[in-house]
Structures are given as C-alpha cells and as structure tokens.
Amino acid sequence: MTIDSFETIVSFLKKDELKNMNMLYFMENNPIQSLDKISNSIVLRGNSDHQWVYISTPNTQELGKVVRTLTKNDKFFAVIEDWMLPLLTAGKTLVWQLSTMKLVLPQHVMFGRTTNSRIVPLTVHDAQYVYEHSLYQGVTSPGYIRDRIRKGISVGIHESGKLVAWAMTHDDSAIGLLHVLDAYRRRGYAYELTVHLVHELRKQGKIPFVHIEEANLKSMHLAIKSGFRKDRNVLWFEVQ
Q1: Rounded to an integer, what distance in angstroms lies between the CA atom of residue 145 and that of residue 124?
Q2: CB–CB of 46/56 below 8 Å?
Q3: What is the pLDDT of residues 131-151, one digit of tens each?
Q4: CATH of 119-231 among 3.20.20.450, 3.40.630.30, 3.40.50.720, 3.90.1150.10
Q5: SS3 assignment, position 10
Q6: What torsion do the CA atoms of 144, 101, 153, 75 make, to the nearest 10 degrees?
Q7: Which residues, including other chains, have CB under 8 Å from residue 131's CB and lie 6 or more apart?
Q8: What pLDDT score was predicted for residue 136?
Q9: Alpha helix (H) ranges present in the chain?
Q10: 24-54: per-residue pLDDT in tens?
C-alpha cells in the first residue's frame, strides 16, 4: 500500500467523518495490517487487543463484495452496523457480540473546565484494579487497559489515597470504562471525568463520542444530559 493510496482512502472516509470516526481514530492509535478500498467500501484490519476488522460500506450490495474478500482469519469485527450482521455471520458461529448505541457530542455543546484538583492521570499500576471493577471482563483484559493507559487519555479521582472513580479512551478514542465505586456515587464524579476527557479530545482535534449499551440507563442518561446525541447502533463480535 502506497502513502498516496492511504491518503486517498483517508480522504474518502473523511467525507462522512461522523460515520467513519471510529475507523479514522483507530488508525491514528494502532498498527494497521491492511487498508483496502473495494468499490465504494473500505476495509481496515488493525491490531489492538485483537486483530479487528472495520468495515465502512453504503449498502447490502456493496457489503456482499466485501464479504467475498474476507478470510478465515477475520474473526473479530468492530463497530458494525446492525444491518450488516446477517451477511457477516452467514455460515459462521457467532461466539459473542456486544451491542451499543454510539452517541456523539455536537461541536456547539461546550463545558466549563472542572475544578476538581483530585483528577489525575492513571498509571499502568491501576490497570488490574480497574479491570477487577469492570462490568465488561468478558470482552476486555488487564493488558488492554494497560495499553489504553499508556497510549490514550486516562484519568481518575482519589479520596484518602484510594482510586474511587476513573475513565479513559478506548483504542478508537471513544470515551469509556467510566466507573465510580458505589460508595462514592452521586458526587458528580462521572460528569467531571467526562468533561475532562471531552476537553482533552477536543484539544487533539477529535469529536468526543461514547458507546453505551441501551440497557445501561444511568450512563445513557448522563451522556444525553451532558449533551451527547444518539447516532447509530453498532456491534462488536467474534465469529468462528
């Protein structure tokens, strides 16, 4: 793949940045194995905790062309729209899937700076502790969290020397892994951490966004109250 072809594909994706932001930001943060344009579709393979396949395609006909290029090594799929699932899993076993709503923060929504001086960067030594309190242990790992602390934006709040709340960016720069220990909730910590990450992402020229399971009513309420707007439902899954 030449530099020119890479730049051409990136320019193509940026024509609809809202739709393709996950793929664009993933490419900034992680090693790329392949990046191909198939007719009017883009297929990205890149390494994070797995070798993920990202697909940007406009319709079922175009997706059919993409499916014919996939191999047995293409097992982990990221940010796949609902309508794409049947074609991508046909004749295969769906090992697991995670369905979330993607919410994006419009540019006009502004926040004041948080004044909580206890917000500090996380260190890799916090990774195991964060993992042990995660609700998503089945689809994440301490290694992934360590990697995100090293490479992304990660912050926490301490009380009496104890880490009681935290949040960070995922491998595609989505805000995530937000958690507040039960005894420290209703103090505004989740909101303050979200605001901090929003400011940091905007300093990098990125659009802040999150992925939230529809059943997670508290997180959904916080995001919408903070100004995030629902964009589309997306899936992560593994096939065999």
Answers
A1: 8
A2: no
A3: 999 988 988 999 999 999 999
A4: 3.40.630.30
A5: helix
A6: 30
A7: 137, 140, 141, 142, 145
A8: 87
A9: 3-14, 17-29, 60-67, 85-89, 127-132, 142-151, 189-203, 217-225
A10: 999 999 999 999 999 999 999 999 999 999 9
Residue whose C-alpha is closest to residue 228's, from 209, 205, 202: 209
Q: How do 76-81 and 229-239 pair as beta strands? A: antiparallel
Closest CA to 166 of 132, 139, 138, 140: 132
Backbone φ and ψ of 198, nearest 5° = -60, -50
Sequence letter at residue 61? Q
Q: What share of the chain is helix, strand, coil (3-state, %, to 5)?
A: 35, 30, 30
Bridge partners for 55 per DSSP: 43
Nearest to 103 by CA among 10, 240, 208: 208
DSSP bridge partners of 229: 104
Give 231: exposed, middle or buried? Use CB within 10 Å, 0-12, 13-18, 19+. Answer: middle
**Burial code of 57-71, b = ≥16 C-beta within 10 A, e = fewer?**
beeeebbeebeeebe
78 Ramachandran zone, left/alpha/beta (phi>0; psi -120 to 50): beta
Q: Which residues are CB-contacts of 5 (< 8 A; sequence separation ≥ 6)?
A: 37
Domain boundaries of the chain, sorted by first residue: 3-92, 119-231
Cβ atoms 119, 190 nearer than 8 A:
no
| 170 vs 148: CA distance, rounded Å | 6
Give the least confident one: 108-117, 184-193, 203-212: 108-117
